[in-house]
Amino acid sequence: MYCYNHLRDSLNSVLFNSSNSKVDVECTTVLLLVAMTEGSEYIVRIIDKKSLKGIEGDSQVDVFVDVIETLVQNYNLENKVSIPYGPGSKRAILNSLPENLDGSEMRSSRELSSGLYVNTNLNREEKLRYILRFASMCEVDVQYSGWK
């Protein structure tokens, strides 16, 4: 735990308290991701201009839902997409009810603290694609490990 805290503090110092080069930031970030990979299969880091938020776990679904929850709570994702949100004419990814766009029940979903439902019946590539898409909508950067 000391190693994680030390690396996190170092990264925050490099990102927000100094004028180090981009290379230093990238090296520090890589070190942090490597240190955090031990013990967790899936890792996502949400980076904005003021902070670094880390989400990790052994379950794709848990990490996916936690990332979406973070984007809703901290970056107003629900105001950046039309609810229900879905890429096509059938499946909803975010909705106010656990239903797809066609009215059928989501096969697998989780309720967020906001009352929105996130569809978790997605493969690994789809989960990562929506993490990246939603992060872009929220204008934050994302780094990830273990998703490919």
The profile of the biggest β sheet is: 3 strands, antiparallel
Structural class, by secondary structure, is alpha+beta
Taking all Cα atoms into account, the compactness measure Rg is: 17 Å
Strand content: 15-25%
Number of strands: 6
Instruction: State mean pLDDT (0 to 100 scale).
Output: 82
* Principal-axes shape call: globular
Give the helix tally: 4
Strand order of the largest sheet: 2-1-6
- The helix content, as a percent range, equals 40-55%
Give the termini distance in whole angstroms.
26 Å
Order of helices and strands: HHEEHEEEHE
Poorly predicted parts:
1-5, 18-37
Describe this structure as you would to a colleague.
The protein has 148 residues and is α+β, with helices and mostly antiparallel strands. It has a domain at 59-140. It has helices spanning 2-16, 22-37, 60-75, 124-137, and strands at 42-47, 52-57, 94-95, 109-111, 117-119, 141-145. The strands form two sheets. Strands 2-1-6 form a three-stranded antiparallel sheet, sandwiched between helices. Strand 4 (109-111) and strand 5 form a beta hairpin. It is globular.
What labels would you give this structure?
alpha+beta
Explain briefly what this protein structure is:
With 148 residues, the chain is an alpha+beta fold. 41% of the residues lie in helices and 17% in strands. The strands form two sheets. Strands 2-1-6 form a three-stranded antiparallel beta sheet, with helices on both faces. Strands 3-5-4 form a three-stranded antiparallel beta sheet, with no helix packed on it.
